[in-house]
Amino acid sequence: MRNSDKNPVVVVIGAGVAGLSVGNFLLCNGIECVVLEKYSREHVERRQRAGSLDGSAVRMFRDWGLGDVVDARLSHADVESEGVPLHVDGETRMWKPMDDGDDDPGVFCPQQVLVRNLIEVFLRAGGDLRFDADVSLDDLDSAQPRVRYRDASGATTELSCDFVAGCDGYRGISRASIPDGVLNCHSHEHGYAWLAMLAEVPAEPAAAMAVHSRGFAAQITRGPTTSRLYLQCPLSDTLDQWPDERIWAELGARFGEPVAVTGPITDKQLVPLRSVVYSPMRFGRLYLIGDAAHLVSPMSAKGMSLALFDAEVFARAVTHFVRQGDSSQLDGYSDTCLRHTWDEQIHAVWITNVMHDAGDSRHAGEFRKQLARAELERMIATPA
């Protein structure tokens, strides 16, 4: 084993949007940090996931002097001016869902584009980013946590630090390193899944959704030549049951007309819809950030924005501690982030229930379907 030549204030685990934002925020304030990522740079920069930022997240980057990392090809305001086509049993309606009460419009920004930009800014500013790092964590409840990692060559390095930022997602090592019995897990299973796909076709318009007795469906832009496709399906379905031909036919059936442009489907995943919150969002000197602490239904399009809220609260708390010697903001980190998380879960669960219960009644029943249809009519009639 070899020791690093420096011990940073913060070791950040994970180089996704949350981890890279923490790294950049700390670097902006002159706080020394090291970002460790399990996968290669190529893998991280190509990973396709979320694609929407709300207005508060856009403003956050701008306030930190990082507005250029948001490569926004389309704003929510552009979509909202006309509304999102919402096909209800084949009838096309227009819905304006993007207004989240913020003066700044949100944007569609593919996660891989945001990650690529954040990496470039971080490295250009002299940031320490290490890929292919297989991490383990020790002494998290001590004054000097230890972070060990094995790199691609097999060499092992140990870092001591003041704080660990766990930004490595729902299945990462950060939360798994917390002893049993420390965290409370609050979860809600919606009872169905999304078949989530990436297709090499443009989304015209940028977002379109369908509520149908066969289930929910959507096509959302992920760039000028790429779309995310979503189909509600039973939890028991397998990918083998969904060849490309069936996918395009099913999308056409739920949208009420054949899909105008089809093309190669390059990625397919079955994603059970669930909402999860772990509390507290810290253990000792380890702070859980983003998906490591909570999952929000993808129907809300709030995953990245929720993670960015945590990232900023943590970065400001560490900066306050380093400059003022005051740990009060770090002590309040979990409570501050959990209040925001639960506020977002309210909307996420509500919109998920409405858009799914209003279509396929096999899960929630006909009574819930009629309730959801009534709510759907109110949503369409009154801008969000």
From TrEMBL:
Domain FAD-binding: 10-342
Domain of life of the organism encoding this protein: Bacteria
Keyword list, A-Z: Membrane, Monooxygenase, Oxidoreductase, Transmembrane, Transmembrane helix
InterPro entries hit by this protein: FAD-bd (IPR002938), FAD/NAD-bd_sf (IPR036188), PheA/TfdB_FAD_monoxygenase (IPR050631)
GO molecular function, one term: FAD binding
Pfam families per UniProt: FAD_binding_3
EC annotation from Swiss-Prot or TrEMBL: 1.14.13.2
Gene3D superfamilies: D-Amino Acid Oxidase, subunit A, domain 2, FAD/NAD(P)-binding domain
Transmembrane annotation, as ranges: 7-27
Record's protein name: 4-hydroxybenzoate 3-monooxygenase
Higher taxonomy: Bacteria, Bacillati, Actinomycetota, Actinomycetes, Mycobacteriales
